[in-house]
Specification:
By secondary structure, the chain is an alpha/beta fold. The chain has twelve helices and 25 strands.
Amino acid sequence: MEEIKTSNFIEEIINKDLASGKVKKVYTRFPPEPNGYLHIGHAKSLCLNFGIKQKYDGKCNLRFDDTNPVKEDEEYVESIKEDIKWLGFKWDKLLFASDYFDLMFDYAVKLIKKGKAYVCDMSAEEISKNRGTLTEAGKESPYRNRSVEENLDLFMRMKNGEFKDGEKVLRAKIDMASPNMNMRDPVIYRIVHASHHNTGDKWCVYPMYDLAHPLEDAIEGITHSICTLEFEDHRPLYDWVVRECECECQPQQIEFARLNITDTVMSKRFLKRLVDEKTVEGWDDPRMPTICGIRRRGYPASAVKDFCERIGVAKANSEVEFAYLESIVREHLNRDADRVMAVTNPIKVIITNYTGSEVLQIENNPNKEEKTYRNVSFSAELYIDGSDFMVSPPPKYHRLYKGASVRLKGAYIITCNDVVFDKDGNVKELLCTYVPESKSGNDTSGLKVKGVVQWVDANNHTKVTLRRFKPLLGLNNGETDYINRVDKNSMRQETALAEKALDNAQIEDKFQFMRIGYFVKDKLSTKDNAVFNEIVGLKDSFNKTNC
């Protein structure tokens, strides 16, 4: 096989394994536990594992690590599958750790028969207390030297439901003096009397992750088991399980740094608490860092994958600025999203020398190679945004004021001749005239103006609700409980008047609302009220020179 150019240390390992003949075809897996929704941190692992499959023409399984029936649910299984599909990845096999419960039990029996595992009656607290410290060896369990026959009998009785939760466990028999704490007779099976989402009530004993994961990899023929750095110290135990269970396949565990983003908490426990306490609308709240949340927020899948590609794969943990993610999202939207006009603080403009109405063709996105246009109605009565007019403007103000001229985007140059105020002194209407020869695309007026403003037809527009967002977590005020940092005002709503064309927008359609920001149509939209979520602002706050 011709060597493939590598972009990270994991691919360097794979290239060497292929060149040496250690592996003939690369086989990876993505193994989430279905105890919550995936977040953007998981996107890095998704892109890495499925990206390796694509790059090396290999395979990648989706395997649900469902060994804890208390926390897992079918809802999470379906959400994870949907997230992976949205990102554009396809798995080769859809599997569950629970598919292997019979095999895993047999492997545990094998370990007992080899004298490599024993049933222990100590409580979790006692096991932890006797494990020792980094500088002090642990104490052996008083049940460590039970005979093979007694251990087999007790393990079968555990399986048959004769004992209560926590009354007994199966422990690997390794080395209580090992400098690696994970090798000090870890628990590999425990009793849990709970119904499992996949196997029902068949089992009341379940394998621990450190036993299940290497066995799953070995059974499936995984060549490179890629995981995050917190499992680095578990690698000797991973290798011990594969070796002592005499597995035919010998997977290689490789660790990489997980994705951390500034001011973003990606703890499933914390995110579940936000959902359970109804602090947010649900797992897909646009402020949540879940994959379904950022999808609803309007982040393009292509931008998420681009972000993961750009930050790369490292061996040491680091933190990425949230503004960098936003910057990449903005790049993709600037390239792909159609433009529309909307005003959030409308001021009526009456063009006194214009009669009738017409339909203008305005370009959708100047950055697209293939030019497309939309129809926008134009009449003598329009709305512009209040931010585009001032009664007493400062120097170098290029928007509208009495005596000033601006161009209406895609339309004509207008001049403000008079201002009408209401009884409270607020601006009610602007009386303007237009230059007929100044039509965009066919301007023969010879006039030059610096200001260009967005507008909507007063007689033919649609009213929309904009949801604007701030970070879910407020400033770090020293709180150790993240829930106390949640900004309860992180979402606000406002009404805008927009082009009538938005009536035809579908859920998840994305637009640049000119000079406002990028928005996506939300699922809360009804026939009478279209709701748009702010994806990201127009201004890029990320300093690219720091990349």
